Amino acid sequence: MLVRTGETFVIVVTGATGTVGSKVVSGLRERGESVRALVRDPGSRPAEWDEGVEVVAADYTDPASLDAALAGADVVYLLVAVHPEMAQHEINIIDAAVRTGRQPRIVLHAAAGVEYKPEGVRFLSAHVAGHAHLEASGLPWTVLAPNGFHQNFLGMADAVKAGRLTAAAGHAPVSWVDARDVADAAVAVLTGEGHEGAVYTLTGPAGLTHEEIAEQLGAVAGREVAYQAADPQAALAGMLGAGWDPWRAEGLIELYTFYAGGGAGAVSSDVEKLTGHPARSFADFAADHAPVFGG
């Protein structure tokens, strides 16, 4: 267990019930670390969390609640949900960390490419703003910059069962990463030393086109799955017609356009560098979730 000046090390995880955050909490507990988990609703505590997880309710727009949540923090895993105010949410948490007076280390969960400041993708732009504010804060920091998650395809399981995969993502490869590897990397950085000022790009072991993704999903589903590259504007209209929030839908089209332009195909070895194990392949992910896809 980590200690600081003879006292228990205080690790705070924001976004603690999400796809990655929940796995970070579990990974820290497996190492014997106590965790302070920030949640919006204290009644949403997962059943698998034991007494080593302190659940604290916090509102990212309320400085007083953030001050209470970060009191005594030594290191903070800063992960916020996709939201129109996500940049401001990151900034508010950083400011609250500064106000503790303890110089806690911030591990910012951003997105692949954040250090290059790409334009035209609102999700990435929000992380660029958060990173810039973090650099100016004077706090010690590390950035984890994962690519899109394998787990995103779980939401397409019904379509896969019907033999199709449709996205406005074009035909360029994307080096998708498993959320489990992102969490493993986060735990390593949160509990380790020597990461200050580093930006780690987290990817899978290979860039895959959506045609290749469809083929691998078909292999576990036991049926042919065909990929159809959707027209971006038609895809946007479909999402809006299905009741999607416009800001999120437009942002997803921006992200897919970035993918289609080849902006997310680079492969990094940072997962293995941080965790000591190779990054999980998409085929591994698909096999692990075969029942979901109809296999």
Automatic annotation (TrEMBL):
It comes from the Bacteria. Pfam families: NmrA (PF05368). Residues 10-233 form the NmrA-like domain. This is NAD-dependent epimerase/dehydratase family protein.
